[in-house]
Specification:
Elements (H helix, E strand, L loop, with lengths): L3 E6 L3 H12 L24 E8 L9 H4 L21 E3 L29 H8 L3 E4 L6 H14 L2 E4 L9 H9 L3 E3 L9 H14 L3 E11 L2 H5 L7 H12 L11 E8 L6 E11 L5 E11 H21 L4 E2 L1 H7 L9 H14 L17 H4 L2
Parallel strand pairs: 1-2, 1-4, 2-3, 4-5, 5-6, 6-11, 7-8
Antiparallel strand pairs: 7-9, 9-10
Helix pairs in contact: 1-9, 3-4, 6-8, 9-10, 10-11
């Protein structure tokens, strides 16, 4: 079975973690207990994901090999597999459109985007020439025009798509139909981390409803110091993000909370946190006898590896669907990995659906031997 040929839009922290992970799991590890929900998806292990094209607009990344660009500023995520071999894939100049917030110029180089003075590459031509089969979208939040531009490029180039940002494509009926018409799979929208703020908040909300506890008020506040949170200081870029995160939690309630009683969304940029995201959740309600209670939770995670932990499943399921001739939004993997899928399910239902999808479309698949790589152990390279 050939590798999964992947194109990446946005060579930021999430792309850095994804690429590190691909190589980290080539190092002869016991995949059954190494942070993967699915060590194998059909015939595909992580080592089968091969980056064949990449696009960015930052002058410190454009023109570099991907193996170098993932370490360029303003990327600041944790290095857990430093020795990434030269990949022979050059980062090409992408289309800017609305992908760069204006306030970035007011922040230092090591935190903000610096746009390259180059003409955009022919995206569709490069996708076709590289043989890309899946395109993953890691653009900044609020890149509405740019996300739709790259979605159309994926359609024109015959690629499946994994939309990791809160621009509604897989969950938009018009775009969903475009992917059905082309018989191309799409997973989206807005990636839900492996164990992040949204999935934790969702599971607790569902737990309350299942235990007869009435949730009356809740908030979720998040801070970090990466470019994602710097970008989101412009609240005009947050409309879709707030909808995505709020609906992800509201969907777990039998009756949604009034809008004045629920607040979910990014809260502030704190420079020194870098890619560490800190989440504060508070939930208030009533138990037996209308006795009041409240729950407060603090969660601290490295944001980008948390995202990559589920993106690897989304990418492999997208390719598996493409192999099987399945087009349009993929319901199960979208519900499992995304905050704003075409249809919401509880997380345990989504996991059951996903496992069934993989099993149904994996007949004849065999486990492949692992390919060793030159990465050091996580302990040796951890910073």
């Amino acid at each position: 079975m050939a590798n999964i040929k992947l194109a990446i839009v946005g060579v930021g922290n999430c792309a850095c973690s994804l690429i590190q992970g691909i190589h980290y799991y080539r190092n002869g590890r016991d995949l059954s207990s190494a942070g993967l929900a699915h060590p194998q998806v059909g015939p595909y292990r992580l080592e089968d994901i091969e980056v064949v094209a990449a696009f960015d607009v930052d002058k410190r990344k454009v023109g570099l090999d991907v193996s170098q660009a993932i370490w360029a500023q303003p990327n600041c995520t944790k290095a857990f597999c430093q020795n990434i071999p030269h990949m022979g894939v050059t980062v090409q100049m992408g289309n800017i459109l609305d992908g760069v917030a204006g306030h970035m110029v007011d922040y230092p180089d090591n935190k903000a985007f610096r746009v390259a003075d180059q003409k955009p590459a022919d995206i569709v031509k490069i996708l076709k020439g590289s043989g890309a089969e899946v395109l993953v979208n890691y653009l900044p939040v609020g890149s509405e025009e740019a996300a739709r531009f790259y979605a159309q490029c994926a359609l024109d180039a015959g690629c499946g798509m994994v939309n990791c940002i809160p621009v509604f494509i897989a969950s938009d009926p018009v775009w969903a139909q475009k992917f059905r018409d082309k018989n191309l799979p799409i997973v989206g929208d807005d990636v839900k981390s492996q164990l992040g703020a949204t999935v934790t908040h969702r599971v607790l909300t569902y737990l309350f409803s299942q235990r007869g506890v009435k949730l009356e008020k809740t908030y979720q506040l998040n801070t970090a110091g990466n470019t994602d949170f710097l970008n989101m200081l412009n609240h005009d870029r947050l409309k879709s993000k707030r909808i995505s995160k709020t609906q992800a939690v509201q969907s777990q309630l039998p009756v949604p909370l009034p809008s004045e009683n629920i607040h979910i969304g990014p809260s502030d940029f704190i420079n020194w946190q870098d890619d560490n995201k800190v989440c504060f959740i508070r939930m208030e309600g009533k138990q037996f006898g209308d006795v009041p209670f409240n729950l407060e939770l603090r969660l601290s995670v490295e944001d980008s590896p948390n995202s990559a932990g589920v993106a690897v499943d989304a990418i492999r399921c997208c390719k598996l669907a493409k192999d099987c001739g399945i087009g349009g939004p993929l319901e199960a993997i979208s519900a499992f990995t995304m905050k704003h899928p075409p249809k919401q399910f509880s997380d345990w239902q989504a996991r059951q659906m996903l496992d069934a999808f993989i099993q149904e479309n994996s007949k004849g698949s065999v486990v492949k031997p692992q390919v060793p790589c030159s990465c050091h152990s996580a302990k040796a390279v951890a910073k």
